[in-house]
Design goal:
Helix 1 crosses helix 11. The strands form 3 sheets. Strands 2-1-3 form a 3-stranded mixed β-sheet. By secondary structure, it is α+β, with helices and mostly antiparallel strands. 44% of the residues lie in helices and 12% in strands.
Length: 278
């Protein structure tokens, strides 16, 4: 169900999210939500460790079940939030511990994998044959039951939600909390490569994104607004969409504004293309 964003999509959703009254128009941005498939993104870098991992080991307790992780302080310090937590325990050289009771272990595992390796599973890989970027295993296993696009690894069960949401959305929101801008860019790019996702999962993930990002955030929110409008024929037949709209929330006001902007854009293009008579 995911599809490529056009430049018109980006102008429409960026202005709706950046306007102060959420309904006015601002100047149109020329930057697209996603780069063309054949463009090569900047190589994502792992933390600049500069040598062997010799820093102190920090214990991290994650989730209500207090699942334990361990990581080098130098690696964790790539995140401003974790760096501050480690500084607060500077006198406890050999027993530093970070508590994350509200975090999901599966999400934190992705964050930790990124901090060490610069990516998380499934990795973003470049196909020389097709000169495009894709998710690891997407070409070799297109069947959903064998790990292709839209497979089980594209979603995560979150205990706080009580259901599954898109994995990359959960990772993006975690990156927002921990100040990892590079991870946010990676998660958004990888989410744009997903397909075969149910409408209910998309709407649940969109609400999760709105609940776990600040109002100043525009990239992930705009991604969902663009997706819903581009696939509006599917969503208008969705019983889940009706239920979500009846519940309401900021997501649907932004969606209304974006739809208004979309209609304005279509009318503007039509006016420019139609002949004028004096």
């Amino acid at each position: 169900m995911f599809a490529r964003s056009s430049q018109t999509d980006q102008r429409m959703f960026t202005r709706s999210l950046l306007s102060r009254d959420r309904a006015g128009k601002v100047s149109k941005s020329k930057r697209s939500l996603r780069e063309p498939a054949k463009s090569r993104p900047q190589k994502l870098k792992s933390p600049p460790l500069g040598g062997p991992l010799l820093s102190a080991i920090v214990s991290i307790s994650v989730g209500k079940e207090q699942r334990l992780f361990a990581a080098h302080e130098d690696v964790l310090s790539w995140s401003p939030a974790f760096a501050e937590a480690c500084r607060e325990q500077r006198l406890e050289v050999h027993s530093k511990r970070i508590e994350l009771p509200d975090e999901e272990p599966e999400v934190f595992s992705c964050v930790l994998e990124f901090l060490y390796k610069g990516d998380y599973y499934p990795r973003l890989v470049h196909s020389k044959r097709h000169d495009s970027w894709e998710l690891e295993g997407a070409r070799s296993s297109p069947n959903l039951s064998h790990g292709g696009r839209g497979a089980a690894e594209s979603v995560l069960y979150l205990s706080g939600v009580g259901d599954v949401v898109l994995k990359d959305t959960a990772v993006y929101c975690a990156a927002e909390r921990y100040g990892l801008e590079e991870l946010k860019r990676l998660a958004l790019r990888k989410q744009g490569l997903q397909s075969g996702i149910e409408a209910a999962t998309i709407l649940r993930s969109a609400r999760y994104a709105y609940d776990h990002t600040p109002d100043t955030e525009s990239r992930l929110r705009a991604h969902y607004l663009a997706l819903i409008i581009r696939c509006r024929k599917t969503f208008k037949r969705s019983g889940t969409m009706q239920k979500e709209m009846e519940i309401g929330g900021k997501l649907f006001f932004d969606l209304f504004v974006s739809l208004c902007n979309h209609v304005d854009d279509v009318a503007e293009i039509a006016n420019k293309q139609s002949p004028r008579f004096i």
